[in-house]
Amino acid sequence: MVFLSLGVVQLVGSLLLYQAIDRQTLRADHARRIAELIVVSDRIHALHPDLAAPIMTTGHLKAEFAPAPAVSVTTDSDTLERIAGQVIEWEPSLAARQLHLATSDAHGGKRDLVGSIRLADGKWLNFRSRDITSMWPIALRASVLMLCTALACIAIGLVALRLLTNPLRRLTQAADAIGHGQRVEIRESGPEDLRDLAHSMNMMQERIARLLEDQARSFEAISHDLRTPLSRQQIATDLIEDREIADIMQSSINEMEGLLASLQGYLRAQHLSSEPEPVDLDQLAAAAIAPYEDRARLTPAGGATVETFPEPLSLAVGALVENAIRFGGRADLTVRHEDRGWIIEVEDAGPGIPPGHFEDVLTPFFRLDEARTRDTPGFGLGIPTAHRLMMRFGGQLSFATSPCGGLIARIRVPVA
């Protein structure tokens, strides 16, 4: 928009400038024609009076010789006075001659310059110089040239602007990817400020990665250390004779071990790395439902081979299948292809999730029954783990309500 505005301003200014220049050039051109006509006609008329008029008449100038002037007096006009003065400048010897100038209407609304000047033998040279009012021949050519130049400059400016903003565009895309938990190596190129920004973003990613890795390792170490007292409690539980107390202790131990396992899975998703490779989505989905036997069913697509990240995708699908069976009793998997890529759907027959909580369930430890006594299994980490894995590797997790009222979790398979 800035380049276009500058181009328009430059074009308008150039038009006004060349129009002013054209007026002066046009007056000088008419004066030159008249001066040349008079000098040459005077000499030709002296040698061949009958040939003078035909020889001197051109497409821009008409000449004829007569005993009386066609214009008896010069019209009071600044333009005509300037032309008369320029005729004398072109040919000072004409200063003593009688020169009368005027304008006359012509075809198409134009006006011609007409005039009469006395020759040396006493006759009068009457002439007509066509179209004195046209101010556009030079301005039009200059305008076309200026328009082409302005368009070329705008095109070059836009190309240069795009080249200059490419690093900024890459930084914007990288910032969006970083916001989704992905690790992006940003090329440090372009102007110095953008190079510094790219370097700072790369360093920031390294610090964030180290922080997440240290955090995950710390929690994993804590989880590992907690298993030792849990093992001792397990031994103590086996020695308790009161079965009611023993069952309570065993339930607490199992719950704690389940929490530690879920927490380790979620933390692993924070720093898991994977290389892309061809994956048969039907086989991957079949492996995810294999531990659940008749509680899970697969509708394969056939020939669904994609270059993707096998381990993150397998963990995400497994977490959703486990969640569907835990809350809905069964899981129906469907592998299909859409315009945007391959989709793996996990549908359950449970109570479902209200659409208003579709975003909330992505938060770790979120539970729909949070305000009530917790009477359902799980720790609210299955769906967040799948969501985190898909964000980091370029996939997407979304939800919908099934016709039977359960939950449909859709994974858009990340493509390498």
**Average predicted confidence as pLDDT:** 79
Distance between the termini: 37 Å
Anisotropy-based shape: rod-shaped
- Unreliable spans are 371-375
Q: Biggest sheet: strands side by side, in what order? A: 6-8-9-11-10
How would you describe this structure to a colleague?
- Helix 1 (2-47) packs antiparallel against helix 2 (49-56) and helix 1 (2-47) runs antiparallel to helix 4 (137-179).
- The strands form 3 sheets. The protein has a 5-stranded mixed sheet. Strands 1-4-3-2 form a 4-stranded antiparallel sheet.
- By secondary structure, it is of the alpha+beta class.
- It is built from 9 helices and 11 strands.
- It has helices spanning 2-47, 49-56, 78-90, 137-179, 192-239, 243-271, 281-289, 310-328, 382-393, and strands at residues 61-66, 99-105, 111-118, 124-129, 277-280, 296-299, 305-308, 331-338, 341-348, 396-401, 407-412.
Structural topology:
Blueprint (H helix, E strand, L loop, with lengths): L1 H46 L1 H8 L4 E6 L11 H13 L8 E7 L5 E8 L5 E6 L7 H43 L12 H48 L3 H29 L5 E4 H9 L6 E4 L5 E4 L1 H19 L2 E8 L2 E8 L33 H12 L2 E6 L5 E6 L4
Parallel strand pairs: 6-8
Antiparallel strand pairs: 1-4, 2-3, 3-4, 5-7, 8-9, 9-11, 10-11
Helix pairs in contact: 1-2, 1-3, 1-4, 4-5, 5-6, 6-9, 7-8, 8-9
